[in-house]
Amino acid sequence: MSENTIAITRPSTSVQQSLAASTGQPVKMESKFPTETIPLPTKGHFYPSTHPLSSGKIELAQMTAKHEDILTSTNLLKSGKVLDKLIETLVVDKSISTNDLYICDKNALLIAVRRNAYGDKYGVTITCDSCGKDNKLNLNLADFNETPFDFSKYTRGENVFEFELPASKRTITYKLITVKEDESIDAEIKSLEKVSSGVTKEVTTRLKHILLSVDGNSDKVFIRNFVDNEMLSRDSLALRVYMRENTPVLDTTFNFVCQSCGDERRESMPIGPNFFWPTS
């Protein structure tokens, strides 16, 4: 197994849960269902030292038929929160809020849950950009590994990354986004769409929330003004590329070769309807 592979600790014999007893001491109870311990791509490095996720791993209960009810909940499907609710339900340590998860960690958990619930085989259809033909493939989710990342460059317990914008030479700092922050950003983007004649403003809105400082100035009004009026498109693109390539994530890309024309490219794994709703 590669040192970057996200290993999954196979089911233990019981789920340990703590309840407050009359003595005030936690009482351990056994669950009927096994659990698995999932390592996080961030290794817990960027969570506050006192946060339970700073351990770099999280224990999840295995999915049951009851959990599948969540996946078919009409209200959750409409709200787009069905997968977040699924993870929340599976987390063993209820002191952990899934809202605190960084998006890169949440995405890795989704794949780990899918592997344990329905196996590593995942059927996808990829349309070739060159010839337009559809290719039906079976991906092995176990093949996706963590991207190499040098944690020694960053202070443990601090969610701060630095980057010099190549065109303007301005120095910015930015952060990883949590599930809760991502929801707030999405809500702001949707609100802006209603008053901006269909212009999404997604790029600038996300940058305003991600940036922590510009040339040492952390004032939020200053940062928003910088993004709206001073940030060059070349710098914006360079920052987004840098963030994509310098974040501890599970790499879900794979080498695609068209079965019809032989065209080759690096492709990202699509999340289709059968990811958590497989037909077989």
Précis, in short:
By secondary structure, the chain is α+β, with helices and mostly antiparallel strands.
Key traits:
globular, 280 residues, 2 domains, 3-stranded antiparallel sheet
* CA radius of gyration: 21 Å
Q: How many domains make up the coordinates? A: 2
Counting copies of identical and different chains, the oligomeric state is single chain
- Head-to-tail CA distance between termini: 27 Å
- pLDDT < 50 stretches: 1-23, 25-30
Q: How does the major sheet shape up?
A: 3 strands, antiparallel
- Got a strand count? 11
Describe the overall structure:
There is one protein chain. With 280 residues, this protein is an alpha+beta fold. It has 2 domains: 16-147 and 249-268, no CATH class; 153-245. It is 31% helix and 20% strand. It has 8 helices and 11 strands. The protein has helices at 65-71, 74-79, 82-90, 103-118, 179-195, 202-210, 220-229, 233-245, and strands at 16-20, 26-30, 35-39, 57-61, 121-127, 134-140, 161-164, 171-174, 211-214, 253-257, 264-268. The strands form 5 sheets. Strands 7-8-9 form a 3-stranded antiparallel β-sheet. A two-stranded antiparallel ribbon has the order 1-2. Helix 5 packs antiparallel against helix 6 (202-210). The protein is globular and about 55 Å long.
Helices and strands, with pairings:
Blueprint: E1 16-20, E2 26-30, E3 35-39, E4 57-61, H1 65-71, H2 74-79, H3 82-90, H4 103-118, E5 121-127, E6 134-140, E7 161-164, E8 171-174, H5 179-195, H6 202-210, E9 211-214, H7 220-229, H8 233-245, E10 253-257, E11 264-268
Antiparallel strand pairs: 1-2, 3-4, 5-6, 7-8, 8-9, 10-11
